[in-house]
Design a protein that fits this description.
Blueprint (H helix, E strand, L loop, with lengths): L5 H14 L12 H7 L4 H13 L3 E4 L3 E4 L4 E3 L7 H7 L4 E12 L2 H7 L6 E11 L2 E11 L15 H9 L5 E11 L1 H7 L5 E11 L5 E10 L3 E3 L5
Parallel strand pairs: 3-10
Antiparallel strand pairs: 1-2, 4-5, 5-6, 6-9, 7-8, 8-9
Helix pairs in contact: 1-3, 2-3
């Protein structure tokens, strides 16, 4: 049996450094030149090994800052009614939200279908970025049915929307339909996440309704691929 290509052998050596703690979670890898010299290889072969580790979610690249060891994945249970802030905090991590924009808009055909409106009906569009332990992990575009949320522009959006709706509008979102699809991050979403176009990611969409069946929220989330471990319990 022939030996594995050298870039895979190099990948295994780097994984061992991660497992033993020589390269701890969230730490920056040494410069490519230093790594190539340490393992007596070319930069081309090293980059193959790094690309392999990136595809596996072992490391990630931050534009202009280099390579970093991926931290432990967040456990995400889509069937549970828990906000981003609560489930991140519950796992001992630190969440942060950055509001990118809020505007009055009209529903496109796809947004109208999701919110059970007619194309052209008034909606709100909220764009945010979310961080875990200061690492940018997702960007979201949230479409909201304006008829249920008058004067929403006066509110703050750097906190849980679900709590805002319950406290200020008496709206409880109890029925959610969720879709999770692997994707390539491109265009405005790659730019917002500060990654190269084509970087792997997850596209999560969520349609949220009240108990009475009123569709209030259509959320489009784009996650980096190495952030979540998705689990579902049947109990």
């Amino acid at each position: 049996m022939s030996e594995a290509p050298f870039y895979l052998q190099l990948r295994d050596q780097l994984v061992m450094l991660i497992k033993t703690g020589e390269l701890p979670a969230s730490s920056r890898l040494p410069a490519e030149r230093e790594l190539a010299e340490r393992f007596s290889t070319t930069r081309v072969t090293l980059r193959q090994a790094l690309a392999q580790l990136e595809s596996e979610g072992q490391i990630y690249r931050s534009n202009r800052r280099g390579w970093f060891v991926s931290p432990a994945r967040l456990n995400y249970e889509p069937v549970k009614d828990v906000s981003f802030t609560r489930y991140v905090t519950a796992q001992g991590r630190t969440p942060m939200t950055q509001v990118l924009g809020f505007e009055h808009a009209t529903a496109s055909a796809s947004v109208a279908a999701a919110l059970e409106l007619a194309p052209g009906d008034p909606v709100y569009c909220l764009r945010r970025r979310r961080y875990v332990d200061e690492r940018l992990v997702l960007v979201e575009r949230i479409w909201l049915n304006a008829q249920y949320l008058p004067d929403l522009e006066k509110e703050r959006f750097d906190r849980s929307l679900w709590q805002l709706f319950a406290k200020n509008y008496g709206i409880e979102l109890t029925d959610k339909s969720i879709s999770i699809i692997p994707t390539a991050l491109t265009g405005e979403f790659a730019d917002a996440l500060e990654v190269n176009s084509g970087c792997p990611g997850l596209h999560i969409t969520r349609i949220s309704k009240t108990t009475a069946g009123q569709v209030v929220e259509y959320d489009e989330e784009y996650w980096l691929h190495d952030v979540l471990a998705i689990s579902v319990s049947s109990r």
